[in-house]
Amino acid sequence: MKSVLGVILCLLFVFSVSSRAQTKPPAETALDRFLRYAKIDTQSQEDQSSVPSTRKQLNLANLLAKELNALDAQNVRVSEFGIVYAMIPGNLADNSKVPVVGFISHMDTSPAVSGENVNPIIHKNYQGGDIVLPKDPTQVISVAKNPVLKDLIGDDIITADGTTLLGSDDKAGIAEIMTMIDTLRQNPQIKHGTLAIAFTPDEEVGGGIDKFDVKAFGAQVAYTVDGETLGEISNETWSARTATITFQGKNTHPGTAKGIMVNSLFALGDYLERFPLDIQPETTEGRGTLEVEQSTLKILLRDFDISGLDAKEKILRDMVAQTQAKFPEAKISIDVKENYKNMKEVLKDYPELTDNAMEAARRAGLKPFIKPIRGGTDGSNLTFRGLPTPNLFTGGANFHGKLEFNSRRGMEKTTETLINLVQIFVEKAQ
Predict the structure, then answer these.
(1) What's the pLDDT at 279?
(2) Which of 21, 89, 135, 252 has the fewest Cβ atoms nearer than 10 Å?
(3) pLDDT band of 341, cuts 50, 70, 90
(4) Catalytic entry in 41, 203, 228, 232
(5) What would the pLDDT profile of 164-187 be if each residue is shown by its tens digit?
(6) Contact 350, 219 (CB under 8 A)
């Protein structure tokens, strides 16, 4: 019995090695794609009513549409809001047995740091130590602050030159999805169901995903490829609200101000002094207006639990009442709007999405782990609109800053995970 089992295992091993050996590489690697995309300025802009918030995002959108058509994707289009949609037909005898899986990444880069004239630098065969960025030696990616560097010995690390962000968030995700499509096209023996693809604008500033057409997208479940460290899978985010507090005073000429002027700044100052230590003004958004007659303050509220978010909102409302009592001549109002909710409230009912992603990462030789996002993703919005969408890693680190980096292995292993993932959905459907 043991000898027969040994022969079977040997044959399976030989078949597995043979199958991998026959896999054709993509026409372009994920790294090479990323290097091209990173040089295209797609920085989004805060406080814009239009989508996309910057027209230059359309430069990448139109390029991606052209490349998707070259990869034989179907129904490729760029919407009036700059969202790129496409469909990759399944290659099964009956594609209806497998759910249509979506893959989504965003095209814009953060407004926090310049995305113009990005000059990607490849630090080949990294052998350890801090990485000093060439155009600004004060910008140093240190091992002490980035212990993940210890896992990248021998890898090729990609950074910017120290004057801009890199754009790995989320052009790495775009490159990895595109390379997955390319690999599937080159290898029809890799079985997969129908795949829906989308690249979105304005994720960093919010608003872009509000224009996403979930029905036309056509997926039943989806993944955003927008995370960081290899193996990091997120099925939970903060819930978020924005509170805007307006302090209305009364202005008049200083010569006749006595008994008439009501300075809104004093009321705002009193309000700030009332913040509990755990929600000090350092947590405010940093935006607002300060005038004698009217001042405003915007405050971001974040919590993983809705009950915690409700408690924070109550604190702000109680503070308004207290300041109003102290400054009866001022008019103080508070308006709270919901930004997004913790997607775990929905994804807990779809454990297979996380399980499949974990298995796909393991097959790529990674050690997957669950990490909640201290923020939100496009998937937060989509999940509550009927499209369950957890978030997958891209291999990057230090998003939104000049010390951002990724690696060749990071992009290759993420791409491999995506290819594994589409096959797992086929296996689970059988």
Answers:
(1) 61
(2) 21
(3) confident
(4) 203
(5) 999 999 999 999 999 999 999 999
(6) no
156 among known catalytic residues: no
Tokens of 26: 């993509």
Average pLDDT over residues 32-48: 97
| Residue 108 falls in the annotated catalytic set | yes
Q: For 405, which DSSP code?
A: E
Give the model's pLDDT for residue 281. Answer: 46
Is the Cα dihedral 308, 309, 312, 314 positive or negative?
Answer: negative
What digits encode the pLDDT tens for the residues 377-398? 789 899 999 999 999 999 999 9
| Burial classification of residue 336, based on how many CB atoms lie within 10 Å of its CB (0-12 exposed, 13-18 middle, 19 or more buried) | middle
Catalytic residue among 41, 67, 108, 155: 108
Q: What is the rounded distance in angstroms from the CA atom of residue 41 to the CA atom of residue 227?
A: 21
pLDDT score of 368: 98
Token pair in block for residue 213: 């057409």
Exposure b/e, 120-152, CB count within 10 A at least 16 = b: bbebeebeeeebebeeeeebbbeeeebebbeeb
* Residue tagged 């669950």 (tokens): 370
